[in-house]
Design goal:
Elements (H helix, E strand, L loop, with lengths): L7 H17 L5 E2 L22 E3 L4 H14 L3 E4 L16 E4 L6 E5 L4 E5 L4 H8 L4 E2 L12 H7 L6 H4 L6 E7 L5 E5 L10 H5 L8 E8 L1 E2 L3 E9 L2 H13 L6 E6 H11 L8 E9 L1 H16 L5 E4 L3 H12 L1 H8 L1 E4 L2 E2 L5 H15 L3 E6 L4 E2 L1 E5 L6 H18 L18 H4 L2 H14 L13 H9 L1
Parallel strand pairs: 2-4, 3-4
Antiparallel strand pairs: 1-2, 5-6, 6-10, 7-11, 8-9, 8-10, 12-14, 12-15, 13-14, 13-18, 16-20, 17-19, 18-20
Helix pairs in contact: 1-2, 7-12, 8-11, 12-13
The protein binds flavin-adenine dinucleotide.
């Protein structure tokens, strides 16, 4: 879906803007050639594309501040960008915007093992944060499947999670402080290198605010000691709903595995063909992992296997070696890529109470029949964070629209059962127009008043998160 081209008025602004930006950044850090800006026309929600007016790649917080000050004075919208892996269109440009990429801000600024934190520039990729501390047996817990590519900047903006967040929490539970540049160029420090800073919990507002409050350039992250050991177990079932019920029972029993991941038959088959992880051929598969000392692992797994046996699994296989564990996880981490090899798909992200898993899986199956579109399910079941992948044909007229309509129905179902529109991917442009299904107008108004404070002209990441009509009214005002 192409977005409208910029109008003449906007193009006239471009020359002046580029010349001002080149006064504060090296020339090659201002990308304004029509073809080169195409590299920034979309993120991982590739159904939506729109080249920006230009893109900038600053190398320091001060350069970010200088860019924002100019854009603020010129009234030009700014879309912050990390690695562009958002599945919600969070980093999608508008035709009149500057893309502000933080990829060059990737340094480690400080590591402190006594107080267990690391301070990094936010363009650093998620996995390389652990890479910087693993030599000393530490790690950074939030582990999105995209962790090789996605940046801490995007993780903070989307409050990202991952397979191991069942035990360790998502980004907000592992973020201690940020340096953020406001739209007018003011640099502010929020939080610190300690828990629960004094004053309002502004960090809680910034984390998950989808690039709407400021551009985060530095972050202080909690790091943890690596556990003594970890062991996953594979559980196969001949029914999706039964697997869902098993997850609900494990959580209800009060055992806390580090991860409970779910895959259904379409995903198991695609993943097996792609990664050869040795998964059994069954309707639904769970990967349940526990951590601790060998004794702790044995005790927790004994309880979990007892619960699983009550649900008549067709396979119950405990990993017996580090190689086997790595292979089990390789399959899960390759699942999205494997599905992408066989079909176009739209990846949804909604959260539900875990006890509703069996019902929601059944309803997704019914919706799949109603719309005539297949669905693959692969998700963080322990947190109730669902990722139905709706398969469609991008070259078939009307298929994308059908897929979007079915996706909206699934997300409404999540809200209906007491869950919410997003678990970890954010609202972006994808779920913007469903926000009234989740929030009453006065609830949304309260959230928009927060944006009014941080970005009174509504120039930062426009047309995202809040329904378009609300966004437009705000900017006009
Ligand atoms: C194959 C695949 C698997 C994925 N798996 C997971 C998963 O398991 N868990 C999960 O949570 N997500 C997952 N994602 C989604 C995505 O990787 C995350 O949302 C990630 O945090 C985005 O990071 P990014 O650096 O790519 O951000 P971008 O896509 O560049 O931007 C995302 C948002 O952050 C804002 N932003 C970027 N930089 C800044 C900044 N400096 N200051 C303020 N705002 C900023 C942008 O404006 C945008 O709104 C997956 C994506 C893919 C493609």
């Amino acid at each position: 879906m192409e977005m409208p081209a910029p109008d003449a008025r906007i193009m006239a602004k471009k020359a002046k803007l580029v010349s001002r930006l080149q006064q504060v950044l090296p020339k090659d850090a201002v990308i304004h050639d029509e073809f080169e800006t195409r590299a920034y026309e979309c993120d991982a929600l590739t159904a939506y594309k729109c080249p920006p007016l230009c893109a900038v790649l600053p190398s320091s917080t001060e350069e970010v501040a200088a860019v924002l000050k100019i854009c603020h004075e010129e009234g030009v919208p700014v879309v912050p960008r990390g690695s562009g892996t958002s599945l919600a269109g969070g980093a999608l440009p508008t035709a009149d915007c500057v893309i502000l990429g933080v990829a060059k801000l990737s340094a480690v600024l400080e590591t402190n093992y006594d107080d267990r934190y690391i301070r990094v520039q936010t363009g650093r990729t998620n996995l390389s944060v652990t890479g910087a501390v693993e030599e000393n047996d530490f790690f950074y817990a939030p582990d999105p499947s995209s962790q090789l590519a996605c940046a801490i900047a995007g993780n903070i903006a989307m409050n990202s999670g991952g397979a191991h967040c069942l035990k360790y929490g998502v980004t907000t539970n592992n973020l201690l402080g940020v340096t953020m540049v406001q739209m007018d160029g003011t640099i502010v420090e929020i939080g610190g290198a300690y828990l629960d800073a004094a004053g309002y919990d502004l960090l809680g507002i910034i984390c998950g605010s989808e690039g709407q409050m400021g551009v985060v350039t530095e972050a202080t992250l909690r790091i943890l000691r690596k556990p003594e050991g970890a062991r996953p177990v594979l559980m196969g079932f001949d029914d999706n709903e039964v697997a869902g019920a098993c997850v609900a029972d494990i959580i209800k029993a009060g055992v806390l595995p580090v991860a409970i991941e779910f895959m259904d038959r379409p995903v198991i088959r695609a993943t097996e063909a792609f990664a050869g992880a040795g998964y059994p051929d069954c309707e639904a598969l769970l990967i349940v992992e526990v951590e601790g000392s060998p004794q702790e692992i044995d005790d927790q797994l004994a309880k979990i296997m007892d619960i699983a046996r009550k649900h008549n699994p067709v396979e119950l296989r405990e990993s017996t070696s580090a190689e086997e564990s790595a292979k089990i996880w390789l399959g899960r981490k390759s699942a999205f890529g494997a599905m992408g090899q066989i079909n176009d798909y739209m990846c949804l992200d909604g959260t539900i109470p875990v006890s509703e898993l069996p019902y929601v899986l059944k309803r997704i199956g019914e919706l799949s029949k109603q719309y005539g579109l297949d669905v693959g399910n692969v998700f963080h079941a322990g947190d109730g964070n669902m990722h139905p992948l709706i398969l469609f044909n991008a070259n078939k007229e009307g298929d994308l629209e059908l897929c979007e309509a079915m996706g909206a129905d699934i997300l409404r179902l999540c809200v209906e059962v007491g869950g919410c529109l997003t678990g970890e991917h954010g609202v972006g442009i994808e779920k913007r127009d469903l926000m009234f299904d989740q929030f009453a107008p006065e609830d949304l108004e309260a959230q928009m008043k927060v944006k009014d404070v941080f970005d009174p002209k509504w120039l930062l990441n426009p047309a995202k998160v809040f329904p378009l009509s609300a966004t437009e009214t705000r900017r006009a005002g």
